[in-house]
């Protein structure tokens, strides 16, 4: 059986004249090979048409990644806030402790002024610590973060100890002067 020009017409059925369409249909009615070609072409075209719908989950993946990144940033902010609160409350406890020791030598006004100054300083320090930590955490890996937390913890412990020691020394001196 002669399959040309029918195979060419099957592959390019857009530009066929009515006469060509009739001749092609007659040939397809008698030729399983050209019917097969037509079906293969149609399923290929269908696959191409369906492709954009298959590609749709890519957008979903992007949205999901974006949501994950946002959630991670929120967690980092939360961690930074917790660190700031821990640092701030430690400083406050130390400051209050130091003030309690010096209460006999302080007037109520200077005590109040000192307390307000300390609170303001602590809040300011917390703000700075939080923004600094947030900026820092955005650019570092979790492993580095753990290391930094350890260093910060160690530093805080050392600072508290040093401050406590100086407060204790000053308290001793005060008692001796009396
Ligand atoms: Zn044929």
Molecular structure report:
- The mean pLDDT is 79.
- The chain has 178 residues and is mainly α.
- The protein is built from 5 helices and no strands.
- The protein is rod-shaped.
- Among the domains are: 4-49, no CATH class; 76-106.
- Helix 2 crosses helix 3 (32-102) and helix 3 (32-102) runs parallel beside helix 5.
- Residues 1, 3, 6, 27, 31, 33-34 line the site of zinc ion.
Major sheet? none
Bound ligands, named by name, code or SMILES: zinc ion
For the terminal residues, how far apart are their CA atoms? 124 Å
Strands, total number: 0
Q: How many helices does DSSP assign? A: 5
Q: Report the average pLDDT across residues.
A: 79
Percent helix: over 70%
Element order: H for helix, E for strand = HHHHH
**Roughly how many Å is the radius of gyration?**
39 Å
What gross morphology would you assign?
rod-shaped
In terms of quaternary structure, the protein is single chain
The portion of residues forming beta strands comes to: under 5%
- Structural class of the secondary elements? mainly alpha
Low-confidence stretches: none
